[in-house]
Amino acid sequence: MTSPSVPFTTTKTLEAHIFVAFVPYCLQVTLKSRLRALAPGLTPRAVLERFAAIQMVDVHLPTTEGRQLVLSRYTQPEKDQLLSHLKLRLPPQLPPKIASDLTPLS
Q1: Which conformational region is residue 94 in: left (phi greater than 0), alpha (psi within -120 to 50 degrees), or beta?
Q2: Secondary element (H or E) of residue 98
Q3: Where are the domains of the chain?
Q4: Higher-confidence position of 39 and 78
Q5: pLDDT tens-digit profile of 37-70?
Q6: Side-chain half-sphere of 14: how many Cα atoms within 13 Å?
Q7: 20 to 30 A from 80, CA-CA: which of 3, 4, 67, 106?
Q8: Residues 23, 29, 31, CA angle at the centre, nearest 5°?
Q9: How far apart are CA 22 and CA 50, in angstroms?
């Protein structure tokens, strides 16, 4: 009987694949443990789906001087209730940026 072909060409590739698979597993186990203590009945998948609705958007406002005021802001659907229930919080909103039309924003 022959062994199946291994798609990994090097040991480093195999280690990288294992690492990339292991990190999400660790995050899921940690979230599941935290949910068991703080929000029984919620699954990690349900929480991640609700967190996926939280996005960061850039609001571009033109000024009278021909420049743009760029405000990076989080959307807030259900965020306050779920985050506070899990004793988490989003990082603070970023300060506004001001850029001329010719300057690329980064």
Answers
A1: beta
A2: strand 97-100
A3: 10-52, 55-106
A4: 39
A5: 998 888 999 888 888 888 888 888 888 888 888 8
A6: 6
A7: 106
A8: 100
A9: 23
